[in-house]
TrEMBL record, chains A, B:
One of its GO terms (molecular function) is DNA binding. Keywords: DNA-binding, Transcription, Transcription regulation. This is GntR family transcriptional regulator. It holds the Pfam family GntR. Residues 16-83 form the HTH gntR-type domain. InterPro entries: GntR_C, TF_FadR/GntR_C, Tscrpt_reg_HTH_GntR, WH-like_DNA-bd_sf, WH_DNA-bd_sf.
Amino acid sequence: METTAIKTRGNAAKEAERAVVISEALQDAIVERRLPPGMKLVEAEIGSLFDVSRTIVRTALQELSFLGLVRIERNRGAFVAKPSPEEARQIFDARRLVEPGITMDAIKQASNDDLAHLRKHLQHENEAMSQRGLSARRMEIRASGDFHLLLASIAGNLIVQRFMSELIARSCLVIALYGQSGASSCGHDDHVEIVDAIAARDAARAVALTQHHIDHLEADLNYRSSDDIELRQALSL
Amino acid sequence: METTAIKTRGNAAKEAERAVVISEALQDAIVERRLPPGMKLVEAEIGSLFDVSRTIVRTALQELSFLGLVRIERNRGAFVAKPSPEEARQIFDARRLVEPGITMDAIKQASNDDLAHLRKHLQHENEAMSQRGLSARRMEIRASGDFHLLLASIAGNLIVQRFMSELIARSCLVIALYGQSGASSCGHDDHVEIVDAIAARDAARAVALTQHHIDHLEADLNYRSSDDIELRQALSL
DNA sequence: ACAGGCAAAATTGTATGCAATCTCTATTCA
DNA sequence: TGAATAGAGATTGCATACAATTTTGCCTGT
């Protein structure tokens, strides 16, 4: 197969497909709200920014459109997704459908190392929350979602994990659009309690807390008409 | 194409993006096992078949790779996915995680029309099962998966529905690879019982039957080493 | 002033060309 | 005979060119 073992290792670094790099950079920017919902994403612009041709940018944007983070309109281009209230409800309904199961699996699978990771993550969330400033707020949003992803990774099913990635990313968008309390208010305390219940292997409690947590998140939303949103977005910048 | 005002109306039909048409054609072929797991999919070949450039074929193949139906290897090309035993297990675990919730939502949402659709679908499955021949077998595979998709569509959450589409399609691949009983044996009787339970609004029973059904499906699998599979594929054609 | 429409600019959709990489065959050497 | 290898052919990765479409700004007539 290969002629030198070293070459193979060298490839591993290069393997980082350029389209994936771009798609992840965009996803980060969208989730952290640096790119607001509805914003136009021009192929050539992104291309020159990352120094690649539109071909690559195109595949990155398609990937994001599969994840529901970007909407592609024929002959008009790509835009950061702007979930409708109905879509938003469905996203949270989907989370209610999936996350209790993930929590239960996590309880079954969690090793001591996993629990340590969870605790470390909670601390991380805490730090982000205590700090001020825009960048700290972004860290907080990101960390809050990462908690759920960490749980999914502990549950140990790659397919479910990928599904949760999508749901979390889209949740961030929804919260950006419809969240009321200035803080992302992702209820850090809820997370602490959930980890405690998991550590105690108390499945019933952990599941109940998980459901409660999702209700909590959705309760902070205000599904205004999307025209209002347009304005809000325009005026806030 | 068309030149006049009629064109505009025609567009709605034309809107069917060419990449999507191709990707759906391929998905059908994969799910119905006309394209066996592991088969190489050459871009130029597909392109000339549908009379489009490789560009379009490429996006279709990427779409399928996001769905897990196609594996793309850098510089080597696209192949019909060949799920490992571990992947197969995760697919069914994911179904166990999601489908009970779908069944419950379906019970909540199902109108009389929906129930009629379900009954009609059962009849359709029955017909496919009673017929002989390769094409009938394909119909059976397809119909058997469609039952679960129909249930998901009744549950009424587009996001969950999309997720189920992926799981069902991948399940078909897994069954093609590891199924033992010549018949796709998707337990048509199970489906009948599930519909009965839904019609009776008996949530506990419907959920139990759903879980049982998935266990049933997976019990018919034999996770051989993938080398054996290679042989089986080679000899069966 | 303003609605309507035309033309230029910007942007996307698709095909194609070229370089890089892989695959397979045939040939050579042990 | 069999393993190693070189090289031709096939295939993919990416950039770019061109056509189709949309958007923008200007102009004109009312």
